[in-house]
Structure formats: C-alpha cells, structure tokens
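Many introductory courses stop at the sequence. We go one step further.
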Amino acid sequence: MPKRVFVTGCFDLLHSGHVAFMKEAAEYGDLYVCIGSDECVFALKGRYPVNSQDERKYMIESLACVKECRINTGTGIMDFLNEIRDIKPDVFIVNQDGSTPSKEQLCRELDIEYHVLRRLPHGGLPVRSTTALRNECTIPFRIDLAGGWLDQPFVSKFCPGPVLTISIEPSYDFSTRSGMSSSTRAKAIELWRTALPQGNKEQIAKILFSYENPPGTKEVAGSQDAIGIVYPGLNRLDYNGMHWPYKIESFNDEEVLSWLESRLYLVSLGPRASSYSVLADTHITPANAKALSDAADACWKSIPRKDSVAFGKAFTAAFEAQVAMFPYMATENIRDLINTYHNIAHGWKLSGAGGGGYLITNQRRYTG
C-alpha cells in the first residue's frame, strides 16, 4: 500500500516550479495537496491571491501526480492542522522556503516523516516564482541587521550609534507586518511602480522617507526603512538624536556579502497581529541604548573579517539590547523557538520590531 504524502501551500499562478515540486513529492507515495484559503493568504500576505481557492484547487486536482486537493480550514502559517490530522499522512514534504521548526516539530509529535526538497526547475526550464510571475517589481525589501531603534530620536538621544541594513531582492513573497520594511516598500511602489529611480541615492531615500511620513505623522517610521530599500548591499547609518543619519557608509564587497548571505537564514513566524504594540512597555535608558550601539558597531567590524563567531556574538547582543528596551519584542514562544537553534547557530535576532515576522539566524554549518 503506498504511503500518504502531504504538501501544503498557496500555489497561486500555478507554474512549472510548482509542478516539478509536486511531481517529486508524488514519488514518495499518494500525494495529498492542501492549499491556503483566500482569506488566509490575505491575512498572511496583505493581498488576495490572483486565482481563487476554488480555481487553484481545480487546477491542482487536474494534475496526474495529485491524488486529492483540499482547502485548508485553519489560519496562519499552520493553517493545515485540521487537514493533516484528518489525512494522517506518512510523509510531510516541504521545499526549502517552506521549511520551519514548527512544521518539523509537528511531524515529530505525529510520527510523520519530514522531507525538505530543493527548489529545482524541470529539465532546462527557468526557475519560476509566483512573485516573478505576478509582476516584475525590482524594488527591494530590507533586513535590519543590527542597531534597529537607534534610527528613532527617542532612543539615539541617549546614545549615538549605527543601524546596519541589508537590501534584499524581491525573489520571495515576504509577509506584510514582518519587519522586512514591506509598508515602506509599498509606498515606494506607489511612487515608482516597479523600480527605483536612477540618481542620488540619499535624495531618493529622503523622498521615500518624506512620502511615508507627511507633516503631522504621529509615529514616524524610522529612516532606516527608506535607506535600507534604496541603498544596495550592506549599509551603516549613524544616528545622533535625529530622524536622519549624520553619516551613511556603504559596503559592497561581493566576496564578503556572499559570505554573509550564506550564513543568514530566515525562519517565518507569521506576521505581527494588528493589535501588537511594541511600545506598550519600554525601558529606554542611556545604558541600554549604549549596549545596542556597541553591539551594532561590533557587528559591523566583524563582517569584513568574515568572523562568524564574532559576528554571531554581536548579532545576538544587539538583539538582546533591543529586547532590554522593548520587552514585548520577544514572547515566550519566540524564546522557545530560539532555544532550538542554540546548537546550530552562532547568533540570532528578530526582524524589525518583533512580535512576529522572521527569526534571522547566523548558521554554523558553513566555515571560513
């Protein structure tokens, strides 16, 4: 009797990458595909899928490799819990983008085999993603690597210091409200549609910052969001009690950036709840601001040396300094997840203001 194989996802705008993944998964047994509902996709990504849940279900069920397709009845990134318990699969298969510790833990609890497949196109076909098919927008996202909150005057007035940002190509559909500067990116899309304009980068970043924060804005978005999107590569932004940094230093050594890219992994925690407020309880003091500044500076200095251990230590210290000032950033559940990475990562932090988004880890699996 063949094994029951379970996969889940959105599968909007069905393309060759989806089909190649499902055909490979079907090699393990009878394939059951469960898809996110329209409402769940909207809650996670801030937009509805191009193809409705019924149309996606119809197309997937039409594939010869698929035994059955269902629409998930749950919510969030674990919206498939009811379906996986009903189907009782022997194998759960995900691709590299979809693998999370919570899925792996669920499989251990339910005694299900867990397999992660590489994202490979069939034969000589091009690599496809739903994001690329939906539009050709090249406006980046950004990672707040270290020092985030120092771009807010109410923090850097206690101690000047740097914020480190990395520009990220839009090759993946990052969730909204997840600390990847998706709201600022949305403003950039309103202004420029699919690509950043050419010209002086600081002037372009100031235009974007001003557009997102018109006169009268009560909670001003930090300028690291606009700068992190406009400036490519790795950047250091030094703040001293003002909304705009007094110095911007860019680092674009390809060898070093490739080294850094190979060590950073993002684990999805799902978007922040709409009711989440990181400012509900704060402990902003000169000592805590200095701890964040010192850690971000140490992080910056470790990168050109390609020192994974020093980078991981500073990376984590910057995160802990953030949490010391903003305790709501890290919940007990997030702490439990971080503990699962202690043996495989040199360091970790949360994207943006926490409360969801992504856990960013500095993995140990590479050396150099």
